[in-house]
Design goal:
20% strand, alpha/beta, six-stranded parallel sheet, elongated, 283 residues, four-stranded antiparallel sheet
Amino acid sequence: MNNISMKLNADDLIMLALKEDITSEDITTNSVMKEYQLGEVELICKEDGVIAGLDVFKRVFELLDEKTEVIFNCIDGDQVKNGQKLGVVRGDIRVLLSGERTALNYLQRMSGIATYTRSIAKMLEGTKTKLLDTRKTTPGMRLFEKYAVKVGGGYNHRYNLSDGILLKDNHIGAAGGVEKAIMMAKEYAPFVRKIEVEVENLDMLREALNAGADIIMLDNMSVSDMEKAVAMCAGKAETECSGNVTRENVAKLTGIGVDYISSGALTHSAPILDLSLKNLHSV
């Protein structure tokens, strides 16, 4: 995540997180550190995983004080080990103390998502299937969580509701059927937009293909039905498998031949990666 992207898209979100944690003052820090003192603290990894979000971590401290220095010994996407020193933060000790929790919250969450994503992406190596995230993200964290998925080796599905057409079961119900929903989407949407349709059985699939859907999402279908669906879609539409996809069950989906597998678990169920700021001292 480069500086331009950070300033345009992330700074406001990071500031909201800081304001959530500091409504008026950091009363604990101000009670023990009443004036400026240059200090340094180490970023330590406490379990094996994939690191992601270093620029966001750094930006937290920079927004509190632009003079803060953060020096890393790794880059996003690196495999890190328990006990590894990942970097050093140097600056006003008051800033180091006040920014610690927010900075770690971002880095731990993003690194956890990258770690979990990579564990699933590795299971798809050697196949044509790409691993996608979903919109099942934490409010206010989508930008960071979807970035972490990419660091872990996954791909981003649509970013938000303005980013693509996905006709799900309730859209189809509101429109009065699969064919009607697709025709209405084609009439309303710009011609450059692909139309993806969620189907739950082969009859819905046939209707979607006949109406000209570009991508078919196979939702909670059996493996045998998905195999039939992939054959039916060959040369007509791309295919996406969806519905309760986790690390525990993705193995059975790898041989089906779908173009994409989407998993909400990448962002809503990944555990954090345990990281810590330790050994704070004056310099």
